[in-house]
Amino acid sequence: MSAQAQIADRRFQHYVGARLSVVYSFWSLVLHSMLWVLGLKRTARYKIVPIIVVAIAFLPSLVLIVVAVVAPPGTPLPGYAGFYQFIIAAIYIFVALTAPELICPDRRHGTLRMYMTSNLGPTTYVAAKLVAVWSILGIVTVGPVLVEFLGLSVVGQGPDGLTESLKTLGQVIGSGLVLAVFFGSVALAISSLTDRNAFASAGIILGFILTGAAFGILQGPLNAPDWVALVNVDQLPMELVFRIYQAASTISVPTWEVAAAAVAWVVGAIGVLALRYRSWGRR
Amino acid sequence: MTPIASALHVQRRFGSVLALSDVTFELEKGVTGLLGANGSGKTTLISLLLGVLRPQAGKLEVLGMDPLKAGYRLRQRIGYAPEDDRFPPDVKANELVRHFAEMRGIPHRSAVVRASEVLFEVGLGEERFRPIGTMSTGQRQRVKLAQALVHDPELVLLDEPTNGLDPIQRDDMLALVRRIGTDLGFTVLISSHLLGEVERVSDNIVMLEGGKVVRSGSVAKLLGGDTPLLVEVVAGAKRLADHLAARGFTAVAKDDLRLALPAAQDGIEDAVVAAVVELDLELRRMERSQATLEELFDLDEVAAPS
Asked: Three-class SS string for chain A?
């Protein structure tokens, strides 16, 4: 036997270490939820779709940078606000994919009851899922525009000067977060109405696209007033993005009203979530 | 000795259904069987102990705390395995157990180590890296047990852990529950609708019927030192029971071949022999042996019908 040999006691040991609080479990659930949605630490088939959707969302920014390099000087390129039209479909698909996956399986598999008997309660559980969905959506709402901004700056077609660059960076991050918070909250609220991912995904896609189409008709042929855009979940967040970039607006409604309407939608969505999960409170 | 948990006149109603009524008991260290038919209030009682449900009357105390007021400080000291075992199928067992350790406040690095240790302890050493969806029902029940133990709780609540198991898996699971209550020193409350199961693994028993505690106490005490007289005849046990009952003895015919008679009945052996001769029956066996809880409860019901 060597001098370094040791007898290891491999029997079950009682735990004597630290027991951390709600805050630790909260962030642990946020991280777990994000990895779960992206298919990390899961089998390969759960990774494929998120990777494809994220790639689709980033592709236009890469194309735009290439165009900026090869196109003759003076060729007009779409602005940061206008760039969203190229990736909005990918954002919708990503929203419809991620939000249901964040909360439906917990109810379907019975793990929700386990969370409710852990450090977390209904409020902290819902809050963790909201932070997770906002963070995940940030990948496609902030990421591609950030890549565009950085790419254009590198090839010399970005904003002029440090002040302007920092301002644009703030607009890029701010508008991306606005979209992530808006779409994430509304989509999570829709997902909370069912245990089935497919129904929730369909509800989200129909909710965004059909309301967009319906309000398009209202505001177009039927000449509905501009404030109608404030209840259009398809148009409202993009309108707020235009205001953040100080780009040309499509409706003549004051910015504070647009912002207030967006906040109202987010608060309403959180209210739906609270109602759906209140039965897990201490009844 | 301070009980691990106690209930005093606890009541819980769901709409017009009275799920628990005037429930009073004390939960001591060791393994306690929570016995009752489906719908008798077992899961409701477990939910109350976890603080997930609020009692409408009475007082509950778990580990010296009020489950409703203590919040996560109590919940991270309780291990809970629900009746349901529909865990996400594509998650590996060690990942799930680690995650729920973190949800109970165990730091990440310790959670990783403990997940492996506890899965090894419940007999899933080699299988701990397998996705749960590829596991048998018995293995999934063990994963469920592992996640209830991983944070080293002071009280483990197991809601019907033998559900869906075949007889061999059931025996293994009961042996495992007994071992975590004795060798590993956990205090366990195991719910079941099978008296035999509870009797095998439990030191104490709380029996629910229609939302009420109908019996509680130590299994050893309930079994007592009494050894009832068990009589087996070729046929006619029911006639023999009636005959003995007419002479003031308590006897329960289990079928037409066997009957059990509570101990502490003076002259019972002589009375049985006389009755067998009088009824012209063929006596096959007469002996005193340790009764099961089921036999005792049967006898109690005959002796003192409610």
From this structure: CCCCCCCCCCCCCCCCCCCCCHHHHHHHHHHHHHHHHCCCCCCCHHHHHHHHHHHHHHHHHHHHHHHHHHCCCCCCCCCHHHHHHHHHHHHHHHHHHHHHHHHHHHHHCCHHHHHHCCCCCHHHHHHHHHHHHHHHHHHHHCHHHHHHHHHHHHCCCCCCHHHHHHHHHHHHHHHHHHHHHHHHHHHHHHHCCCCCHHHHHHHHHHHHHHHHHHHHHHHCCCCCCHHHHHHCCCCHHHHHHHHHCCCCCCCCCCHHHHHHHHHHHHHHHHHHHHHHHHHHCCC
